[in-house]
Structures
1.
Amino acid sequence: MGQQEKVSTSLAGAVSEGISASLAAVDAELDRRYPGDPGTRQPVHTVYVPGNVFDAGTVRSWGDQALAALDEHAPDAASFAAVLGLSDDLAEDVYGRVRAKLEREPIEDLRVDFEDGYGGDDEDRDAARAARLVSEAYANGTAAPYTGIRMKCMEAAVRDRGIRTTDVFLTGLLEHGGLPEGLVLTLPKVTYPEQVTAFVRLLEAFEKAHGLDAGRLGFEIQIETSQAILAADGTAAVARMIGAAEGRATGLHYGTFDYSACLGVSAAYQASDHPAADHAKAIMQVAAAGTGVRVSDGSTNVLPVGSTAHVHEAWRLHYGLTRRALARAYYQGWDMHPGHIPTRYAAVFAFYREGFEAAAKRLSAYANHAGGDVMDEPATAKALSSYLLRGIDCGALDTAEVDALTGMTRAALDRFAARAAATSPPRPSSRLGRTAARGGRPPASDRRRRDLARAAGEERRAEHHPLRRPSAPSRRRNKRSAAVRPSAAASWATTVMPSRSASSMSSKPTRATGRACAARIRTAVTVTRLFPAKSAVTGSGAASIPRTAAPTRSGSVGPGETHSSRTGRPASSIAAR
């Protein structure tokens, strides 16, 4: 052995302790705002069905229709591969897995729609019926792993209706056995963070009324307006929405057509690969990173129906858009028709099958400290493990083959991916009992949301508690500090409320107004620190336009992407891959 080095230090232990103490608040804030991935399975898609159409056979019906489309338009692996451009070594495997998936689990995430897609004349009845059918499906094992509703938004014109439908549906679930673990709620057309907060208050009231654990109910936020991406003051509103959810947000879902129309994109070019869509989703992705909130892509409105040529062109479009999204780390999207499911699963399975061996070998080399032609870091090892776990969850990969190539168990993969525990699709095998009717014990991810919601609520209440008012000496110090920094509030007022002049404000603001202004200043300062660069955009109105077919446009593709075209025109005009 060589000579042992003498280790000397110059700083007392108190220095390290002092630094740690000074960063304690930052440590707590990081842990609260960025808890990391929840460790649960993320579905590869969301299917929405109008509330007046949804019935007990919806899931199986979609699977049967998708299988019938394959039988008619691509009856074997070779023909399906030819349509999508799958390589020979993937053709049989992908086609077989797609058919097996359609028979076993055709829908991973189902949303009963009471918003844009709803066309019934008795929403109370349809919401109550949906609750009963969802409960029965979970009880008999026929439910999609994740199921819930999309209610109307928090805008004034439809707010009361959205609140009532949410209440009717959730109350019905409790009456018919309890809240299933796979329950998902989707809040659409969110424009201001305050609308998210309002929905949180609604869920809090429901939990309190039924004695449920705080934070038991989570929800997704659907981003369909430009104001949700960039607020009037130039900040990223979507980041503030995640905070406004107080730990309850589970996902951010991009609304392709409403968002495009809000920006004035013409119907011919409304698509998930439009530059405006890429910008919005990139902001969503950055805002959600590390928070445990997942991002979902939108959908295409080109339906694979009609002649075989038309179906093939629509399949190519959908496959290309899905592969493009996966390469950009959008692992979930929305499907509008049973004919979309075969290409959804084909794209997902091909994505994981193509990269499986390379990812497994790289992860194994990293875990075993073996050499190789790629030098990976811990963050990349985490991404490799997450990639393999996603492939296993959706059925693209088998646990046994991953174990064989990596030498790791599922638990080991979970540890590398920093997941709390391996989770299988939530699917109760028997009717939920009395405990579940009271809400049951929420799964780990729900308990995490509950804890975050409770902490946020306590922080909010403490902020306005009279005991937190500064003492007289503190008020004097604050007054002196304000005298030497008179521009802070003025700067905020100019930036955040440019339309309000000094003459339009009361000369004698109330105490409540003062507290509200102080809270806004704190928010503005925090957001400014997070998002210092400000810019302005203008929209051209939020009017919806018909989701009709539109001309297509061929374009170049980047590395690892497949050809994609704009939505529209009869699908026969979409360029072949």
2.
Amino acid sequence: MRTVHSNLKIRLLLLTVCYVTFTFSQQKIEFDSGINGQIINGYTGTLLVKTRKGLFGIDPKTKQVSWKNMDLKKVDLSEYSEVPYTSIVIFTQKPLISSKAISNTFNSRGKAKTILNVVTGHVLFDSDSEGFKAVNHTMILPQKKGVLVDGVKDKDLMISLFNYETGQQVWETKGIESNFFENTKGVFFDDEKILLDTREDIYWLKNKQLIKIDGDTGEVLFERADVTSMAMNASKDILFVFSNKLGAKKLGEENAITALDVKTNTVVWKDPIKIWGNISDTAFEENTMVVITSKGFNVIDVENGTKKWERSEPLPLIKKIVPVEEGYLVVQDNYLVRINDMGKKGWGKKLRITHSFQENPVYLLEDGQEILYITPSKANRVNIENGTKVWEKDIVLNSNGFIGRNLRLSEHHFGVWNDTVNKLFPVYAGNSFYIFDQESSKAPVAIDTFNFKRTLPNLKIRDKGYLLYHLNQFYFYDLSGRQLYNKSYPYPEKNNLFSETFYWTKRGFGTYTSALGFAGNQIAKTFNSVLVSTDLGPLSTATSNIYGTYLTYRASLENVTELNQMDFDLLNMSAVLNRINTSRKNEGLLLIVALREEETEIIELDIDSGEEESLKTVGYTYSDFAVDQIERQVYFFDKKIVFIEALNN
């Protein structure tokens, strides 16, 4: 009898455990007017819901409306961008004819911007309420708790700093007696660059006019004309100014580089360094500065103020430079060339590696005596010493013909991921999937072909393989490329937020990326830095996408992330850090929404094993829904109502 009683207890305990393992809760939120837009913030999980009357924020933890703002009813969710690893987002409103140059010249209505903290609902900056007729740039300065803005205000080009906690203007520079403002207004073709030094003073370059602004007061500290470009070292204590004021005969042919101490504004080198060509990019490596120009490139010793060679070989249209033993490998125009330590050609001939010079990104992966190149067109291994190809034939990654490529009759989707643990590079190109082994001399073959339609699929890297997925199609491969399983679930072709996820990401929308496949372990090692969004421009030029072996772990993050030095307070960061920690708990599981004729099924897929479990069936088919993989909940939208299905385990 005791045995039977014990077995009964065990069964009841197991049933209880099974019940607790997956608990469900549905939350219903009803609005006064119809829902006409919604989006999940990838870095906080906040669900933004737009109605005709305003914008609402729903907290993913409490599943309640945490804030509402009726003044934001006109924001455009299709012009929404996230500042990476923060709770800050930017809404841009464009006029019918959007042109920064026209707005500056004719004082017409230009872009309006609203900067919002999605956790608190607090508006950090609103250009309309601050009197801006058009905004050119906005830059978030966490060290100053400020938003730096330039645009048209009261018929003049203005630069202003606003405190994003109080919303108050800290300072405004009208530039009444400044040549910078007069010479930059109405410029249709201008290179604009903004840098901050170690003292948090601001350097602004526009139309070859450079000004230095005191970051605390807005006072213009100095001006300099005929500046073609500028750069700053990693410690931000030396400013490098490039100028081509060298006489009419050498205009556009030669630039002089002057190094300035940011604290004293005095020159660091005895004489300026002359560089051949106009500056297009710079990169820093230890105590050297690599300068890429319209003619070629050179390497500057920052401490001594000397250059490595007088002139390199003529190399216009440089897209990539990778240092190797005794020289550099350079992707120039459509070709791969080697340059030795004297700046001269190291191979007898150059290798064509792309169909068009416009193709990007280009990957060069060094492995001892060989280099693996992967471009949107083709791939091969090359002997670094003599420039001969290792594989007899290139791997063709884009088979479109000349007419199709140049007229862009069809889209070519190309993605490269870096599996650092296994030293492998999964590649998706032209509806085919490859796995490149950097250390193997064997050429990979196309593993499989797909029909993912108008987008680049997502890829999730696991210890023992790769999950390639799009919409409700899932393919899992082991490290050798053997398919372990493929699964497909019913899926609506239209009016589905899940379907639009990758399409919007490709357009730069970048909103559901983190919610669907957040890689918490990919966050930067330090948070003591400045974060800016891509439309703001980077605050540091310590690294360059052109110089060095540049790889992206997740291609979808590539378009939205510029992570340098951040110093946000704990309150603003807590939601982001909590989400990162939460994301690590269920990295091996995916929630799938299968829409059938009269019901909606929520399924859990174990990525590594391919095992699936039906978690819940809802007796209704919703046309719009969004999945938050991190919080393990699904949002269904129906007219004025949001249904939240939370699945906790």
3.
Amino acid sequence: MKYLAIVLICVCIPTICLYFVRKINQNKTSFLHYILFFFFANGLSLLIFCIQPERGVSHFLGHFVEVTFKFWIQYACLLLFSSLIVVCTLGCVDSYSKIDITKKTRRRSILGCIYFLLGCFFMQALPWACSRFPMQEPEIIWITITSPLKGADPSGIIALVLFVIIPAIVLQVVCILALKFFFYKDKKELLFHYKFFSIKKDIQFSKFFCVLTFLFFAYVMVHVAIEIKITRYINFITRERRDPIDSLFYKENYIVPDTVQITFPEKKRNLVYIFLESMESSYQAVENGGYFSKNYIPNLTALAQENINFSHINGVGGGIDAAGTGWTIAALLSKMGGLPYNLPTVGFNPDNMIHFLPGAITLTDILAEAGYNQRFIFGSEKGFASRDTLLETHGNVEIHDIDWYKKNKMLSEDYDVFWGFEDQKLYEYAKKELAELSSSDQPFMFGMLTVDTHMPDGYICPLCPTDKINEDDQILSVVECADKQLGEFVSWIKEQSWYENTTVVIVGDHLFMTSKEKDIFNEQKDTFDEQAETKERRWENSLGESVLSSSPRNSSRRWINIFMNSAVQPTEDVMKNRTFSSFDMFPTVLESIGAEIEGRKLGFGCSLFSGEPTLYEKYDKTYVNTEILRRTIQYNEIQ
């Protein structure tokens, strides 16, 4: 509620102050009085906003240390400009009582109100959006706003209403209507405008009001465009509208799965495929190759060290987010199909999708043909971002989501937390599902996707130790709790009789989505001591990249991967100091359950067990990302 609170304070305090001053001063307050009180009141509101009892004075001082001189200049200019708008608003309103209202005057006034409302809306929307979404990534943002809302976290919609729409409307209404009733009870005393400006009655304030509000709106929009890097959005839309090309890159590097022979062993192994929402190896301590002074994923680290972990360093690491793979549905497609999410976005409606890339051959297609019984569970609604279409039209995977568990009386009809239900319940349901699947002689593939660690702050479940939660970095506490739950679930799996013939694959679906307003990884770069920095510089991958760089979007961050009880055991040189992406999980997972792949490549992926160079080891990262996102004839044939 902080945005709503500060908006109300910024408007109400100057209003109340001026009301009483005018009473004391016999209703002779001038424009200068208003400007002074506007600055004073907003300064006071900023002070109230920054000082919070639970954080103390040191936290308040930290706010002023963090902001720059440029911030205060912009803040002062915005306040001055806002006060001018309010003055002209009042003059515009009061001029109705002094002159005849023409259609032109009315249109200007209405247009000015629209400019002001839109300016207020985008002024509130920018910090809200930057705190929740990676606003500088147009592909992710476009997919988010065009995907069906069904199954999305309702808190995002509630936050939009509370922190953006309501404050903008309140600011508009208060500035245009409420102030008038405070200031102009006595219509004979209009010193605030007419005597100060020496303006005649026939001059219409609507002209000034319309111009000023337009300038305010233009200023806000320019600021928004700069903050979100609007050129990226322009390039994205331009690329979307280009005609597809015949891509040499696709011809040379994309292996169509149904053109190669895939052979399974006589006794097929089961597969448990666990996708952990936004789980990175970066959550480790610095000495393990991570970003923090504390290891927030000790169980995952131990599992990675005891089993197979493909890494970009000598320690525990992982893979990169290739272009078109950095959000959940794209991660599922790339890790199980070796393809980027490059579906049409401009003018494309996912609700109308009947088949998800009908020309593609995915992991679940191959397993279905091999006779596997397949099931996937979600703690949210399966229809979000067309996840159900992907799984059900490729291998006819049985999906159990929140609606299924409610229908089968495992959840109450009104149960709903975060994105659906928490991981604590998901793991309990997973045990029941696995017990059922393993009771059959048919080999099975069981997949699950967790959700508690979803950006921006994750979900605090009953298992999280509330006394250790850091309000600023809540997600770290959630990650630590998620790591503990995963460790206990894996321990349970290892105790089951069917584990001997089962491969367990654990991966982060994609990197945690940071934003300009909140980047927990970039914030750590100034917190390392000299010894830690010296140690971390020794961690390098095959391309000579250091584990940590000063870049806000650090190229060394990796989603974690762990292969337990694999049918193939790689050598150390094959596992470590590798540069690979989500595409490579497709053939690697198949080989981990004993499948033999002709050429050991599928889609854009190369089996990491083979030791053959991946796309990102053969080519420059920027080149690969550019080529796989081109509109191509080859991708159009798949879709």
4.
Amino acid sequence: MKKIVYIILFICGFGIVNSCVDDFDEINMNPNKIYQVSPQHVFPGVIHNTLNYTAELNHKFYSWHARYVCLWPSPKDTEDMSGIYRDIYMRIVKELEKLAGIFVDDPDNKNAGCMIMTWKAYVYSLLVASFGGVPMSEAATEQLDNVYMYDSEYDMYVQILNLLEKAVSDFDLNGDKLEFDPLFRSADNSSDIVRWRKFANTLYLDIALRVQNMDENLAKEHIKKSLSHNDWFISSVNDIVKMKWGTDLNQDASYYYRSFLRRYEDGSDRNTSAYPRINQYFFLYLKSYEDPRMDAFGTRLSSANRFQVLNDTITRINPYDKSMRDSIDVRYLVPFLPAREVRTVPKGWMVGIDPNSPDGNQQYKDPYTSVSEDAWMFIQRDFIKIDAASVILGWADACFMKAEVAVKYPDLITGSAQQYYEDGIRASFAEYNISGLADNYMKTAGIKWNTNGKGRMEYRGFYTANINGEGGAENHLEQIYKQRYIADFFNGFAGWTLERRTRVLNFPPFFYNEDVLNLGSTGIGDFIPERLLYPRDEITYNPVGYYAAIEEMQATSPSPNPARWGDNFFTLLRIAKPNPQNINDWNSGVVVFNAQFLQKWYGKTEEEFVINASKDYPTIVSVPSLARYAGYRVNTIISTYTPN
């Protein structure tokens, strides 16, 4: 009887979602005939809606919070989440709940039920890690008085873990399949149940690790269950969980293409404010360790727009006495320029005096000078093109999660943390088709297991991208977490969540360029938000549920905050580790500009410059050609010396 009621509600209340997008549904249907509800008719549309709304969240919040990219707006608590929150519930959550009511535990649709449970767990895991507790038990409730209660953060995670435990165990490799699977397809386009199960079990481990700060015993219980099926994890590029848009501009083009890329490329709107550019902090980890993935993540500057490093100190052979060397101040062009965040000198700060200036009274000079709007390191087009793919969980994630477990709970897993860590790097390189470069990268200090790496410094001296991997468990975890962060590039939700639960990156605050209306803010800057705000509509339409959720969140948060009546950016969720920094320590100080993040781009000597610059400019074979193609010029000779 329950299933019949669900079917009637589904057909009459919401209709059949007949997805007409590329690669989601190719079934021709007679509009004059009522068909039996099947997951094939509805589930692809749910996944497509998930793709669009998670992309919008990634563009506006997640990838920015993770410091993967820069956009110009500052976070404000005047931002109303009502529209996207409502759409997620109406177009994704409620449809999933109704699908689950029909197909979960249906013996004729056992695998379809497992797919629905897996996707339901994923969507709720995204919502709870973004907002805190949200409606789950009463998500599909239809009441005239509009009262529906929020589940607590803890209760949601218990339900999510139980969903995934059941889905993983219930998948039947010989059971039912969707004829045209929206996510994992076999050769005949039907569902690949092996890959669906790998997705469910990898997500299961991910969520179990996420709740460690909230309840370590709960985490260990489910980590152990997930790892009891060690071969049921993402284990190849083909297993990577990604949703993909199509090529029909009117039907299934990517959110990013429709939002800004199309107008940018056709010239109708060349405003780059919405075009993600590589963030200064993320860039430090790429350049510090000469990461070969740099070209996969960001665009090179055109020859006309290459950025000029005005001052750098390298050495060369003295042209008149080959036994001597010169220390020289040089300038040259570089192919990448990361975007700095909005405020260069924070309010309350001052620029320091350079004691080496000619008169000893000049301020340090900002290395970012005369940068045109097109001269940034923009995100690679593959991430935002018309038929881009959005990754949920990768092969590298699975490897790094196992490495984390091997460090923390070695009794729960076979294999060494080092092996899983190195597998994770190789998996990430394989994803970008540069597998042959992984082994050399892993020889670098800081990347090589159990070694320390000295990173480059941010242009104001606020942050250095060191990797302290040598020593015990905490150091090994730092290496694992930072490599997972890099591998998850542009999956902003993953990067943001990883940082909140580990604090391994420990970035400086985001400094405001204007008066910010965030209640509880210092007005100078704030650390990146700990959560998104509940939609304002809830205050009017569901005040009982809304205020009860805030009260519960404030009562259980590891660091509650009363600002904005408790619904604010600064209240930590229970999955979060406390921030080791104090925002008040950033209220004032002295900025000492430096260009270290770009200097020594091609090496420390003129000989190295010729060799390394030739990788960017194959025509470079000598110092004169270095000058011709890379804008190389000697500003002055600092000193001449006899090398040791």
